[in-house]
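Re: your question from the hallway

Yes, I did run it. Sequences:
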Amino acid sequence: MKRYILERLRRLVPFFIETPEGSPPPDPDQVVAFSEEFFFSGTPALRVVFFLLLLILQGLCLLTRGKSLYSLPREKAEDFIQSLSSSRIAAISAIPMLLGMPIFMAHYDRDDVQLILGFDVEALREEAAKREVTR
Amino acid sequence: MIIKPDDVPGNISRDADVVIIGSGAGGGPIAKELAEEGYSVVVLEEGGHFTREDFDFRTGEAFMRLYRDGGQCMTLGLPVMLLPQGKTVGGTTTINSGTCLRIPRHVLMRWHLEHGLRDLSEDELNLLYSAVEEYLFVKRADPEVVGKNALIFLEGAEKLGYSGGFLPRNAKDCEGYGVCAYGCPSGAKQSVNVSFIPDAVKAGADIYTRCRAERIIVRSGQAVGVRGRFIDPQSGRKTHRIEVQASIVVLAGGAVQTPSLLMHNRICLTSGRVGKNLSIHPCGATMALMDEKLENPKGIPQSTFVDEFAPDGIMLEGVTLPPSIFAISLPWGGKRHTTAMRQYPFYGTFGSMISEHDSVGKVVAGPSARQPLTFYHLGSEDLDRLKLSILLMAEIWFAAGAKRVHTPIEGFKQLTGPQDLRRLARTRLKRASIYGLSAYHPMGTCAMGTDPEWSVVQSSGETWDVENLFICDASVLPTSLGVNPQLTIMAVAIRTAGFIDEKLCSRSIEFEKPSRIERLRKRLRGEKKTVNRHLPERDQAPTNP
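Structure:
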């Protein structure tokens, strides 16, 4: 089950994260490595939830688009994810939100991505290292 | 000393005066107080020990290392809420925002009237609060460091005439790195891992890390020790055993783990109240797109508050989010998400905290002691209150100049102006239409009281059922506080340490000394009168006589 989840998440990365010009592209390997740890440290129940969500996501795509999500062209797959996000039914809009959690956390935790967003982690890390507060 | 699993060559069997399960806001202060009194103290902590060098601004890793279940603990019920809890030396204090508020007076009065806790007097609490505040360098957040996010929101509140200000925090020389919830990288935040625990260790306490307590040993109705297992951090497998025989056992694992351990040990169940009466603070958050860059998350994440509606159970408290957490809080995926993320520097964030009125919750023993189930049902009054808090935040953001505000309410993910506020105000919410909620500060699952049929522990912290077994964490606080509870947990912990000290002293015929409270009183006597700096006058916490 874990393998299935990680492999599917890897394939979902480009549908969830667009790469604007000048931004570092998402790294599916990094997302998978992060997700593996994410699931290891979490409750087994969450793995089951993710497994079910991936099946539901695929099922909904087959039902509404007539094709597997992973065989859709990127733009159409993105549109499909977007349409779920915009649903007024909370149970449906929650699907991409939950599945996106490890993907977004992994990608936006990268120093180079954060730097583009104005959060210079490396500089702060150096500053904090020099500055120890003692009691 | 602090002992890691690698330092343990085999099974351990040892004696101590006091063995404490948990090293957070309850366990840490007790360990320090009793170790400094000369008792041999052993602390068993399930999480690992990390220092400021380990806190390197990586939020994802912090979740996995410092949070229970990688930060994925949730309540079951409607709506589902994340309930983050710390699992590291220092407990949740290592990953909280450092806010230090005293108990509101009306809550203390309720404890007196409804739970019979009159001996937890205003005077005594004042002494304890003063001692903790002094020890933890508690002072209001420095406006120079709080960051633009906080200042802009406060400006908006002022425009609307809402009362607010800067929160008191346990931080010394804080530079506002903006990552309190992932471990303070400078050591400025005086969480238990940098304050009480090091002092306890200096006084001779031994802290066993990655050591999970499994069995409380009870003989003839008396607690006499604890058995546990070390956990290998890489594999998560159990390794060596530890057994500590002690005169006193203190359970301080937090309001979710403590009842779970009691239920799995089948002790203290006479009242039927273990795990019941769970109260938490459900929280909502808003994100607002502004015209100027806010330099988030630099600044103090939780530095300001708006307490205009505190008497109605709504407290607004600041929050800033680093990019990775901001990203998972946005209500979209795909293109729209990417577009919003590009505007991250222009987004402001603020949070609200609800003091419950008609919600109910409980902790139930799960398949293992490690994984209890937390059930929580948000009551309709509290749902309305949550909606009101989100409306208030949005109103303040618009007053501060926001172009649009994102809320966690289905159908109202994006508000663009006062007309949307009115539309939201008129809407009757369903529980399922709020998503992405989180809750903090679980309390009340082993409530303190004077009636053994309605409480689990006595006012001293000792359980009604098992002699020499004390509970000291948020689980003993009988009701929701409506404010961040760490200061109150610490104050009650020092009080409990006093009772334990008295109990241990009374066993020694040649050793007499004044009570702990009396000594505390003497230590503080002669100091300038303490004024409550935390709440507005109408809801003042007790002050020193």
